[in-house]
Design brief:
The structure holds two protein chains of two kinds.
Chain A lengths: L7 H15 L7 E11 L3 E7 L7 E7 L12 E10 L5 E10 L1 H18 L17 E6 L4 H13 L4 E6 L7 H13 L15 E6 L13 H9 L4 E5 L7 H5 L2 E3 L2 H8 L3 H80 L1 H6 L4 E4 L2 E2 L11 E5 L4 E5 L6
Parallel strand pairs in A: 3-5, 6-7, 6-8, 8-9, 9-10
Antiparallel strand pairs in A: 1-2, 1-4, 2-3, 4-5, 11-12, 11-13, 13-14
Helix pairs in contact in A: 3-7, 4-5
Chain B lengths: L2 H4 L2 H15 L6 H22 L5 E5 L8
The chains are: A alpha/beta, B mainly alpha.
């Protein structure tokens, strides 16, 4: 049987073909420890995966930062999934499709490393936290309907508030599909209009991402870099409530509101009916009191005005009375003066009365009705009337002496 | 859809708060006060009626995932 002769590159091509056909990607997870981890140009990840038992056995790994997210570093125990191939530069390497930290220690290190990375990017800043709507009408709920969290959340929600539409995206909250499903839910809520296959008619006012407590392995989806970035990038404010009070996840840090439990998440998104009722009643009371106060104020103004007017009328009346009194007094005095005047005038007049002179023995002689003052105006024989104090007599001129 | 559904609780509550703030001013007009007082009572009643609604509605949304499962 003749030997086939291949060029080196042809042989490598054949080898790669055999590898591809026989080792399906994602068929195995390969576990080992990271060494020589380097990130080139922020895009290319190169490292070796060291065998835990035989440290000299190493597998060269290559990945892109698009596929492998999260923070990894040397000494971290990880699992990788990928495609093996022999490169033309004669290195056997694994092109990593997926990588996860393994074991509590490694997961915690990955968690801390990722947290630091997010912190440096400013993603954990308090300043970017958004306020939640006070009275939400539509709530997007991302959790598993199998989890206790789902029941707890709805129970507290119903206890506190009513008339809300909850859009539930039923997703796995742990296991290998969790990340993908949670990402899909965020995408659906944020792009509800551009995805016709998603039957959300109106955007939600708030998104709640929640699950019960668990180990760091259980919570991996909530610490996954892509999920954390989806929470951060959400156009709709996000409330994250994971586990029991103690548990924390990186989603908690980037969410707008961090709730301690699923029940607490419900408490954070809706107000309590009793509290709002109390507030409404208080507003009613304040309004009522103020309104009554205003009415009373106006009433007082009117009353004061009336009182003022009464007072004014009273004063005018008093003035009038005083005036009348004064007038009366003046009049009396004036009459007296007048009387005195009249009396003295009468006396004066009395003094001038010619009859009074007659009483002293004088007589008034008249001739033809005229008083005779000059004897030359008379003729002998003229008739003269002589008036005395008492009575009168007629006489005749006998002789004139001029 | 009933008119109750279209009632916007947020807006009603905000208006109620605005009315209360108006009343807390120093000088208020009696005629306007009467109008605001009546409007306030109406809003308070509408809000309280809404609070009496017990039910929340849950709607499942369908998500389309990738081919990995």
């Amino acid at each position: 049987m003749p030997e086939a002769v291949l060029r080196v590159s042809e042989f490598l091509q054949l080898t790669n073909e055999v590898l591809r056909q026989n080792i399906m990607p994602n068929a195995f997870a390969i576990e080992g420890e990271i060494s020589g981890f380097t990130l080139k140009d922020g895009k290319w990840i190169i490292f070796s995966l060291k065998d835990e038992v035989e440290p000299n056995v190493k597998l060269k790994c290559f990945a892109t930062s698009f596929k492998v997210t999260g923070a990894f570093e040397d000494g971290m125990k990880v699992r990788v999934w990928g495609v093996p191939s022999v490169k033309t530069w004669s290195d056997f390497q694994l092109t990593v499709e997926r990588m996860e930290a393994v074991g509590e220690g490694a997961l915690k290190r990955a968690y801390e490393a990722l947290k630091k990375k997010l912190e440096l990017e400013g993603m954990l800043d308090i300043s970017r936290k958004r306020d939640l709507p006070r009275f939400p009408q539509r709530i997007g709920l991302i959790t598993s309907s199998d989890a206790a969290a789902y029941g707890d959340f709805l129970r507290i929600l119903n206890n506190r508030w009513g008339g809300v539409v909850v859009e539930h995206a039923n997703v796995r909250v742990q296991g290998k599909d969790a990340v993908e499903q949670i990402l899909a839910a965020f995408e659906a809520f944020n792009k509800s209009t551009s995805r016709p296959q998603v039957d959300i008619t109106r955007p939600c006012d708030v998104i709640v991402l929640t699950r019960g407590g668990g180990s760091i392995e259980d919570l991996h989806a909530f610490n996954d870099e892509m999920v954390v970035r989806a929470v951060y990038a959400s156009k709709i404010p996000v409330v994250c409530g994971v586990g029991h009070e103690r548990d924390e996840s990186l989603c908690d840090y980037v969410a707008d509101v961090r709730a301690s439990t699923p029940s607490n998440a419900a408490e954070r998104v809706v107000p309590s009916r009793e509290e709002v009722l109390f507030e409404i009643e208080m507003i009613e009371r304040v309004m009522d009191e103020r309104f009554c106060a205003i009415v009373n104020e106006k009433k007082t103004v009117l009353e004061n005005f009336a009182r003022l007017m009464t007072h004014q009328v009273h004063r005018q009346k008093l003035r009038l009375e005083t005036l009348i009194q004064t007038l009366g007094d003046r009049a009396t005095r004036w009459i007296t003066t007048l009387k005195t005047g009249v009396d003295s005038s009468s006396r004066l007049l009395a003094n001038l009365d010619p009859t009074r002179i007659l009483s002293r023995g004088y007589a008034i002689a008249t001739s033809g009705g005229r008083v005779v003052k000059d004897a030359s105006s008379l003729e002998v024989g003229a008739s003269i009337k002589v008036r005395l104090s008492h009575g009168s007599f007629d006489s005749e001129v006998k002789q004139l002496e001029r | 859809m009933s008119t109750k559904k279209e009632f916007n609780f947020t807006k009603a509550f905000e208006e109620l708060e605005t009315i209360m703030q108006w009343f807390e001013k120093e000088e208020v007009d009696l005629d306007e006060g009467l109008k605001k007082f009546e409007r306030g009572l109406e809003l308070a009643k509408a809000c309280k009626d809404t609070l009496a609604e017990v039910e929340n509605k849950v709607e499942k949304i369908k998500l389309k995932f990738g081919e990995s499962h």
